[in-house]
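TEACHING EXERCISE
Course module: macromolecular assemblies
Task: Read the component lines below, then compare them to the predicted structure of the full complex.
Student: A.B.
Group: 4
Components provided:
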Amino acid sequence: MSILIVGGGHAGGAVAANLRQLGADVPITVVGDEPHLPYQRPPLSKAWLKGDAPFSAVGLRPQSYYEQRGISLRLDARVASIDRGARTISLAGGETLPYGTLILATGAQARRLGLAGEDLPNVHVLRTIADADRVKAGLVAGRRLVVIGGGYVGLEAAASARLKGMDVLVVEREARILARVASPPISSFMQSYHERQGVSFRLATGVAGLEVREGRVTGVRLSDGGTAAADMVLVGVGAVPNTELAEAAGLVCSNGIAVDLEARTSDPDIFAIGDCTERPLSHYGCRARLESVASALEQARQAAAAIGGGKAPAPEVPWFWSDQYDLKLQIAGLPIGATRIEVRGDAAQSKFAVAHLDDDGRLCAVEAVNVPAEYMAGRATIAKQRAG
Ligand SMILES: Cc1cc2nc3c(=O)[nH]c(=O)nc-3n(C[C@H](O)[C@H](O)[C@H](O)COP(=O)(O)OP(=O)(O)OC[C@H]3O[C@@H](n4cnc5c(N)ncnc54)[C@H](O)[C@@H]3O)c2cc1C
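Instructor-supplied answer key:
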């Protein structure tokens, strides 16, 4: 029974390794449409933009790891379709590969705005090494960067660009940055911190269009009628799960490919893991799509255990981190069911935590800035209070 993994990102690379660690003695093939060995994306908006790190700084494992363990890598190869009846997948070039078990680890792609001029060479998204290299090439001191979207990726890139001496403006449609993913105290602290580093913000401001001159974008037209001049634009407005293959194959999908706690899809022979999935959250009694390394790795372990006959891993409390300047934001849990927050520590010292509690005083989530102990304790408390 061969195992075929579609997508050679963080989840795809991890599940191949997990399967071998569990002793799976069957052919394993990873088909990925990027030309690189499986790598980590988090550094792309952080260390990768700031320095000259080699690929080995972001690669999950060296080539020899896959060779020694008989894991075949088909890189630069795109899977175009799945034939569930025949148990085969077709590559974009027409080749057909059989599978006994299929694992979809297709991740997500950067959301685009659909604006005229968005495909011009000084307008970027940040999802792949290729994207990050293009952004890095444009990070030149004194030039003007407009970041559209005040989410984690946009803010991390803004910090990296500021450290390179760029003039940075973040345009955010909502009334606060990080509106979807962090509490108001964290949003206002992060905004102030960025402002002290010289980043400007336009909040509650949409983008009406791009100004184009001689094949380059020269400015971003704002919903209030103004224009922000730009030498480079970064569109950081979230990610869309890559579910087309699964949908075309008739697998159940909603906001991602629907999976259970074994990472199994509606077809028992097909698993899905990582950013492309909508998964159960056992600590919260609901389902969601998480975009985090922790979730991708947890699901890789779930799928490997289910396929390889290992013990199912205990459900993990979701966790996430973001590095900006010298700030380390660590988040454990999700504020689902929370009705109040408590701020502990001192934001003025850039060391504080925000606890999210429900009506019964149970901890739902903790956001910790430069206080790893609060994060660790919070994560343990959530695991204990919300077990099963
Ligand atoms: C800039 C950036 C910063 C981030 N920072 C953090 C952070 O600080 N902390 C954190 O927890 N998370 C962070 N994330 C999120 C994290 O990187 C993702 O959650 C993680 O990469 C998910 O892994 P994945 O394997 O599901 O998807 P991906 O890593 O996206 O891998 C999916 C792979 O599948 C390929 N693929 C898709 N369709 C096909 C096909 N049909 N055929 C072949 N190949 C295909 C894709 O090209 C891609 O290579 C960040 C993400 C980005 C982009």
